[in-house]
Amino acid sequence: MPLVSVRSVLPPGLRLNAVARVFGCLGLLAVGLLCVLSQSAVAGRFDYELRPRQVAPDTWLVEGRRESFSTTNGGNIVNVAFIVTDAGVVLFDTGPSLRFGQQLRHAIARITDKPVVLVINSHAHPDHFLGNQAFADVSIGALSGTTTQITQNGDSFATSLYGLTGDWMRGTEVVVPAELPPDNPLILGGHRLRFLAFEGHTGADLVMLDETTGVLFAGDLVFYQRALTTPQTPGLAHWRAELDQLAQLDYRLLIPGHGPLDDTRQAINQMQDYLAWLDATLSRAARQGLTMTQVMALPIDPRFDAISLTRYEFSRSVAHLYPGYEEAAF
Q1: Got the DSSP string for 294-325?
Q2: What is the pLDDT of residue 191?
Q3: Per-residue pLDDT band at 282 (split at 50, 70, 90)
Q4: Which CATH number does 53-265 carry?
């Protein structure tokens, strides 16, 4: 912000006396101080306050809030995680914006001086890949279906997220990932990483299992203590079948796409319980001929009271899914 000279705003020919010059200098100092304070306030306002915490050997989690997108949280509602291997850092998801990605990169640098050598995008929802821009110099991999979805929808996703979170998104541009490295499992820096392809959440959902530590990076195939989202699911039955497969994996710690980490193997059970209830509720409502508005007003089973955003996400799921249930019923 340029400083404005006191002389430039006085009428021509008006001479400043000594007192005026003193007050003019004080005014300039005040304007300069306001500029500094304003810049600091902006920087503070857009601080995601990312605090990685170690959850397993070499493994760090940055946990997002269990909220919906807002101008207050800037889209910081997603879990991202990284592994510090002997060969460098493997990052799982990059967050919702360029600013998030930049701050994430700084947060990783506080933990280790090793470079980020591989970034994984779990799927094509904007809170998981729009931080890619901060890692454009790194190899970024995803399922081919995810790459296609980001190519087709990335710009519209970014525009929508800007509308929800505002200037947190300023400067963010879509960086499309390449396909995953061909080696599966990938052995990197003393860690054996297995990549598994699923479809239940978006049609292209990547899960990564670190077989060395037993940590399962589940992406949005699993939500825990935060209601799941359904805008692109190929079907609740399909999702539930894949969760059955996921439950058979040999893991000791699960990092969901949203919500707290799970070291008691409860997250998948909670998902299955909620999906079964949601499916049964929508099926019954369609058979009864309820309107979408009536379905949205139905009570939610009290056993899901502890899950964040159940009413909000239930209403959204009704909007996404109910027409299909009506069609099947009639």
Answers
A1: HHHTSPPPGGGTTSBTHHHHHHHHHHHHHHHH
A2: 98
A3: very high
A4: 3.60.15.10
